[in-house]
Hints:
By secondary structure, the chain is mainly alpha-helical. Helix content is 51%, strand content 8%. β1 (72-76) and β2 (83-87) form a beta hairpin. The chain is flat.
Amino acid sequence: GEANNSEYVKRIFIKSKYLPPPGNDEVEERLGRFCKEVEGMVEKNQTNQRGATNLNKLQQQLLRILKNHPEFVIFLTDKNLGPTIIEQEEYVKQALQDHLGDEKTYKQLTDGKAKTSF
């Protein structure tokens, strides 16, 4: 039968010390090349190389000014739709309402409980 969501999620986090046996030489060689290629991509991405921009000089300057303004928060949107800007106060309000205020996901702890939970 089909497991319900709570059973499925619990099964994801089963700790195990099992290590699968190595594959044949060809599989291990390809896996090694794949890992090196991924590591190279990650390293290249972490060097903060900037790609070409589609913003003109004035737009770039304005974006830099807004990024450093304490009343605004700028971040990238989902699905690579570019940057978005929101007032800091509204950002915090939405974070509290939409995320931390969700009682199905989060539970408010007393000071004592919070200090002993970690």
